[in-house]
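Entry for the shared binder. Reason: the reviewer on the internal report wants the predicted structure included alongside the sequence.
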Amino acid sequence: MTIVYFVIAALALAGAAVLLWLDRQRSTEKRHHRAVWGDRHGFAYRESDTKLRKVFRRAAMDVPDHVTVRDVAYGTYEDAEAVVFDLSETATVIAVRRTAPSPVIVDLRHEDVLAPAEDDVELLGAMGPRVMFSNDLDVARRVCDRRMIALATNAPPFVEILWTEGKWAIGSMPLTADDAKLDAALDVVRRFADLLRALPPVRDPQGSPDPRDPHGPARAELADEKTENMRDKQRGAALRKSAHEQSATRGEADSVADAQSEEPTAVWAAVPPTVNRAARSDSLDDAAARTRVPGPSTNTAGRRMGPMPVQRPADRSRRDDR
């Protein structure tokens, strides 16, 4: 009995080995077939890629982390960069690069496919056998012209989802290696990318101005560092010039004040030499009286002192005789 069990186990092991070999041969044939298909379009080929999972994240690319990218064919199709690859045991994906990225997301999928799992898109409406979702319904309505309706109606049903993501227009379909399906899907995605030219592009912040341009952006956060340094230098030069002009103006005013303070007063008027001493004394008394400031204040600060009158000898002898 033990021998029977051993034989059965050996047969099962042999059968498993045969099945693994057949699966390997099938996978090898499929990858080789993708490379041959890529050669017909002038595409390059590689067996796997780790970056595409980071570039595409929406719709059919929203899969668990263990799903890998296989059988990648990439190149240029009708003057646009294109890439075709398989998500292992999940789907075949075709992506065509657009001329410019847009913040508007357009998701056009067959009515038999589940709605998007993302929360940032809303239902716009039906277009033939397909349904459109978008994060900006007003812009999406402008895109839905007759050409988009014709594409949604005439696209083969095996192309289940068409959507935008960044600079790319992407389409997905069940896992396939059929040349006709790959050609049809590539053409549909390329036409879809052309129709999306009406989407508004991403508006980048204002570029850094030329440092030599004095008319840079008014907002400080948009100004280039070199432009800010130049502005600081210009402000400093203007402040220094203003301070120099103010100091020069103050210097001129001080010079005028000093010149006025050094001018002699008219108190000591010139007296002709022919006038006797008595007449000179009288004139001095009159001048002192004119320069004396009347008022009760006894503060003599800022007031010129008048000359004392000189007593003549004749007056002194006359007073003694009295």
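Summary line for the report: The first helix runs from residue 2 to 40.
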